[in-house]
Amino acid sequence: KTPLEADTGQSEIKPSDLYAQSAVLMDADSGRILFAKSGQKERPMASTTKIMTCILTLENADLSDTAVVSKNAAAQPKVKLGMREGETYVLKDLLYSLMLESHNDTAVAIAEHVGGSTEQFADLMNKKAAELGCIHTYFITPNGLDAQDEKGIHHTTAEDLARIMKYCIMDSPKKNEFLEITRTADYSFTDSSKSRSFQCTNHNAFLNM
After folding, report:
1. 50 a catalytic residue
2. Catalytic residue of the set 92, 102, 166, 174
């Protein structure tokens, strides 16, 4: 038995014991992978996409900017804030909607404001992924909805996602702002006209552990 097993009575955790299809445990200081289960297998990344959407917005936009809601943004499927075409919102408020509630319409409104279009924003996402060494990642949408184009499907790996997260919390010049948003338990805001109000609640269970 290892010292840990002797002290705790626990046996070694094996990758097959995990419910998750893919998983990685990374040392955030060094970037070293300590544990992996199918860590390099490419999979659709769903709403974890929004991590990249958030950090790019923090690094490339003025959070006091006002974003105008397009028809495309308003038409996104649930989960959504429920914004309406033509409404305007302060960009900072939208980041809380994005990260606390994972709203799909918010992600598109942010991407269109920051990148000019979702396609141009995806170019920024892929450029940043390449800079971080994420060679098995390809972004198409800012919200993580399934998508495919001539270059492939919207996907990442557990290892690449860990690299992105390490960058957000350890290396980005906007890491403090990223952590401030993602550590917030509740957040309230209105649209720019103050005619509609919204309440967002963080669903990250780790905040209360």
Report:
1. yes
2. 102
